[in-house]
UniProtKB/TrEMBL annotation:
Similarity field: Belongs to the thiolase-like superfamily. HMG-CoA synthase family.
Domain of life: Bacteria
Name this polypeptide is given: Hydroxymethylglutaryl-CoA synthase
NCBIfam families: HMG-CoA-S_prok (TIGR01835)
Any single Pfam family the record assigns to this protein: HMG_CoA_synt_N
SUPFAM superfamilies in the record: Thiolase-like
Keywords, in A-Z order: Acyltransferase, Transferase
EC numbers, comma separated: 2.3.3.10
Domain Hydroxymethylglutaryl-coenzyme A synthase N-terminal: 2-165
């Protein structure tokens, strides 16, 4: 039985900051940001969006009444939690109108959790093929203003519907996992921005990729040449390129050119959004599927997921005949329609997120065009609005 990704859809903010402008404001060479780090634009998440609204905005438009009735598992992967006890998935399930018989949980392991969610969802659907599972990776990447990590911020949510006979990608049942205690990136409960050893985390990322890539090939006896393209978690797009380059000597020059060409398509949309932690690998997958004219049904794609701390996984999926039907076809136009804001506006949005205090608070939600918005906090409870309700 084939099980895998039936549909996938992305949501982020309606605003972005241009990376050349940000580089100038930080007295950095623009080429460092656009070439050295590989980012051209960065999503600016307004205070009226959090992981709940991003997740609901990503998923709602792609779900039919049939999907809503069949979903009995919702997993939100995130490292941008809004509550230490209650799962963001419960708010999301409510906003989406999912059944109260749906199991709803939040999962955490830095940028890796959405992949763990997909693997659990895949196992669940294999046991219950008439059911569907919704997995959403939702995050706001925050390193802090004027920090080395600042140009690798961003945010958004990737929603993926996992089902039997999927339209987009049939997933492998085998995968290779590596999990070890590494202090490359973490965020204690009292911090709103990540603590990171950036160079160290980039090195660990490559070590993990090489390890799980080789492990997968050996374990499944798959020749590297069987993989049409490799898709990476992209905290910044140069990161994936570095990892890809590290395994190029394993294949012929023709295949090296093919992998590099596919990679350029796989980073197109991520270059314009920035990091979205858990959802980043899947935005890259969507970017590849939406923009690459050289893919064919039957192609086997390799997926590398990495979460600092650290956990990595490599697995594969086979492209299905009608894969275009399950894609978020309007995404390139939505990104094009976003509003460019200046660095001051970006900094105000960054500093204006709801404070972690008990006071009642309000956001400027009226200027946010999305269907689901966070209007503020009252009596220590977040207030969400569905404009279509
Ligand atoms: N033109 C072109 N490239 C330039 C340049 C210029 N004028 N100036 C610098 N660069 C290149 C550097 O050579 C480097 O490329 P390389 O890594 O291929 O050698 C790149 O731009 C970044 O420069 P660097 O000096 O290393 O940047 P930095 O010290 O400011 O930090 C990160 C970069 C990625 C480490 C930092 O943004 C960070 O900590 N990010 C968050 C952590 C992260 O995402 N980790 C990934 C694993 S999850």
């Amino acid at each position: 039985m084939k099980v895998g990704i039936d549909k996938l859809r992305f949501a982020s903010a309606h605003q972005y900051v241009d990376m050349v402008e940000l580089a100038r404001a930080r007295h950095a060479a623009p080429d460092k940001y656009t070439i050295g780090i590989g980012q051209t634009q960065m999503a600016v998440i307004p205070p009226s969006q959090d992981i709940v609204t991003l997740a609901a905005n990503a998923a709602a438009p792609m779900l039919t009444a049939t999907d809503l009735a069949a979903i009995d598992l919702l997993i939100v992967g995130t490292e941008s939690g809004i509550d230490n006890s209650k799962a963001s998935a419960i708010y999301v399930a409510h906003l989406l109108g999912l059944s109260s018989r749906c199991r709803t949980i939040e999962m955490k392991e830095a940028c890796y959790a959405a992949t763990a969610g997909i693997q659990l969802a895949q196992a669940h659907v294999r046991m219950h093929p008439d059911k569907k599972a919704l997995v959403i990776g939702a995050d706001i990447a925050r390193y802090g203003l004027n920090t080395p990590g600042e140009p690798t911020q961003g945010g958004g949510a990737m929603a993926m519907l996992i089902s039997a006979d999927p339209q987009v990608l049939a997933l492998s049942t085998e995968s290779a996992v590596l999990s070890q205690d590494v202090m490359d990136f973490w965020r204690p409960l009292y911090h709103t921005t990540a603590l990171v050893d950036g160079k160290y985390s980039s090195n660990i990322y490559i070590d993990y990729f090489q390890d799980v890539f080789q492990e997968y090939l050996i374990k499944t006896q798959t020749p590297a040449a069987d993989l049409a393209a490799l898709v990476f978690h992209l905290p910044y797009t140069k990161m994936g390129l570095k990892a890809l380059r590290s395994v190029l000597p394993q294949v012929t020059e023709t295949q090296q050119r093919d992998w590099l060409r596919h990679f350029e398509y796989s980073r197109k949309l991520n270059r314009r959004v920035g990091n979205l932690y858990t959802g980043s690998l899947y935005l890259s997958l969507l970017s590849l599927l939406l923009t690459d004219p050289n893919l064919r049904p039957g192609d086997q794609l390799g997926l590398f997921s990495y979460g600092s701390g650290a956990e990595g996984e490599f697995y594969t999926g086979t492209l299905q005949p009608d894969y275009q039907r399950g894609l978020d076809l309007g995404l390139p136009q939505r990104l094009q329609r976003r509003q460019r804001v200046d660095v001051t506006t970006y900094e105000r949005a960054f500093n204006g997120q709801l404070a972690w205090v008990a006071d009642d608070q309000q956001t400027d939600w009226q200027s946010d065009p999305h269907r689901f918005v966070l209007t503020g906090q009252q009596n220590e409870q977040r207030q969400y609005l569905d404009r279509q309700a």
